[in-house]
Amino acid sequence: MQRLSLLTPRFITTIPLSLCTSAISTTHNNSMEVEVKLRLPNAVTHQRFSSLLSPYHLKTYLQENVFFDGANSELSSNLSVLRLRFYDLDFQCVVSLKAKPVISNGVSRVEEDEESIDPSIARACVAEPWRLLLIDSSRIMRRVREEYGIGEKGLVCLGGFRNVRAVYGWNGLKLELDETNYDFGNNYEIECESCDPERAKHLLEEFLNSHGIPYSYSSVSKFAIFRSGKLPQ
């Protein structure tokens, strides 16, 4: 039986190739993700917003985001991003494919497809990206192979960044307050996924203005900031 050697932060093990058919455990339908994205200027405004929302705090996640592209930039040249997101070290991992992003006036729209993946297998794929393409049970990886024409050894790891995400339930909205840690600095952002983004943005702006918290509309994604190598002005 052909076997895969899977590397994790703590140990080396081997898993039969056939088990990769069950690496994906939970699927989510491909959909359009619509989010309000407001950027906070610094750590002081981030902390102030966090303190004001503390009665509505639900949970906080530690996220690690790792990105991949084809060896010939097959994904990025088609405005697509393949990402592994680890939650709270290796408690959970989600693989996602995002495409055709548009962000305007603080509202982001992007096509998104997501699946949960076994964290130990995902760690092995960070070390050796071609292993992702062997997960036959993954709808997303089938799309990467078939729609983007990426062959068996055609993925490369681009690196990534860490993010601390605090989640709040406020005014019927789910707010996500992010502190994103890049090698070149930190970025602070409020995100709110909504089917009525203009209403959500209006409520957020009213709240921020009433408490004298400065903000601006996010104009680029976290991934775009990562790839540029510098924080937005």
Automatic annotation (TrEMBL):
<dbReference type="InterPro" id="IPR033469">
    <property type="entry name" value="CYTH-like_dom_sf"/>
</dbReference>
<feature type="domain" description="CYTH">
    <location>
        <begin position="31"/>
        <end position="230"/>
    </location>
</feature>
<protein>
    <recommendedName>
        <fullName>CYTH domain-containing protein</fullName>
    </recommendedName>
</protein>
<dbReference type="Pfam" id="PF01928">
    <property type="entry name" value="CYTH"/>
</dbReference>
<dbReference type="InterPro" id="IPR023577">
    <property type="entry name" value="CYTH_domain"/>
</dbReference>
<dbReference type="GO" id="GO:0016462">
    <property type="term" value="F:pyrophosphatase activity"/>
</dbReference>
